[in-house]
Design a protein that fits this description.
Blueprint: E1 9-16, E2 26-34, E3 40-46, H1 55-61, H2 65-68, H3 74-85, E4 89-92, H4 95-109, E5 121-123, H5 124-131, H6 136-144, H7 154-171, H8 179-185, E6 198-200, E7 206-208, H9 218-224, H10 226-234, H11 239-256
Parallel strand pairs: 1-4, 4-5
Antiparallel strand pairs: 1-2, 2-3, 6-7
Helix pairs in contact: 6-7, 9-10
């Protein structure tokens, strides 16, 4: 079956130096762009992260420091990546929790703005976990009847993710072949930022989801403990989280004018 889409959707996968969204870097990015007419375009970049790749991480994805020592930095390819993603919906495997937040960090670090406004995000892993509770390799075997060769290669993982989503839609009658539906279905919680440090409560008001102010509204903390805002901006939080906090603060100030 064919995925029903009204605008292009980019399936993408990252291989990285680790799993810390704020500190780790991309070493490989692969994008599969699917167009409404069924055409596909793909691109894979190896990236010099500018920091060492730990041996234990190289043992997982096979990309070593020698592999990327002569490859371009992310900043040098950032405009090409952003251009390929421009005006597209996004999809991946564990992408809402990891790939999209880390990609946003790399783009912001490269002085390229990133926003999910008018973009639907489909996390194939969340659909899989809601339906079957497995890993990508198991999902590929379960849904597509194939063994995932070259697992932890971003190109192989990206193509497998695309094929798994199409198979999921075909298997489950409850899954609508519609990107907005799939985006809502595959989203866990209502994050304000990408990493989930700020979430909407049941009244759709932004609240902190961590630390001593967990559950308290951002407006309340900005009003009653303004020093906390300054601490957050200088602490080791994702740049996108800081961007969202700054915008919320500006909105509050503008509403007072």
């Amino acid at each position: 079956m064919n995925l029903k889409i009204s605008k292009p959707i980019c399936f993408f996968d990252l291989e990285t130096t680790g799993i810390n969204i704020s500190l780790d870097r991309i070493v490989e990015i692969s994008i599969l762009k699917v167009f409404p007419n069924g055409n596909k375009e793909s691109k894979t970049w190896l990236v010099n992260p500018g920091i060492p790749i730990p041996l234990e991480v190289s043992n997982i994805h096979g990309i070593t420091n020698d592999t990327v020592k002569n490859k371009p930095s992310f900043k040098s390819i950032a405009s090409d990546v952003k251009s390929m993603l421009q005006n597209c919906d996004l999809a991946g495997f564990n992408s809402n929790k990891f790939d999209i937040p880390l990609l946003a960090e790399e783009l912001l670090r490269s002085d390229i703005d990133f926003s999910l406004e008018n973009i639907s995000t489909v996390d194939v892993q969340n659909i899989f976990h809601k339906m079957e509770q497995r890993t990508l390799s198991a999902a590929y075997k379960f849904y597509c009847g194939k063994s995932l060769e070259n697992a932890h290669s971003s190109k192989a993982d990206t193509l497998a993710t695309f094929e798994v989503l199409e198979s999921q839609i075909q298997k489950y009658p409850d899954l609508q072949n519609d990107i907005k539906f799939l985006s809502e279905f595959s989203t866990r919680g209502k994050n304000v930022d990408l990493a989930g440090f700020i979430k909407y409560n049941e009244d759709d008001i932004p609240c902190f989801s961590f630390g001593k102010h967990k559950g308290k509204t951002v407006d309340y903390i900005l009003k009653n403990e303004p020093g906390y805002f300054g601490w957050l901006l200088n602490a080791d939080f994702p740049m996108y989280t800081k961007k969202v906090l700054t915008q919320l603060r500006l909105n509050k100030l503008n509403n007072k004018l």
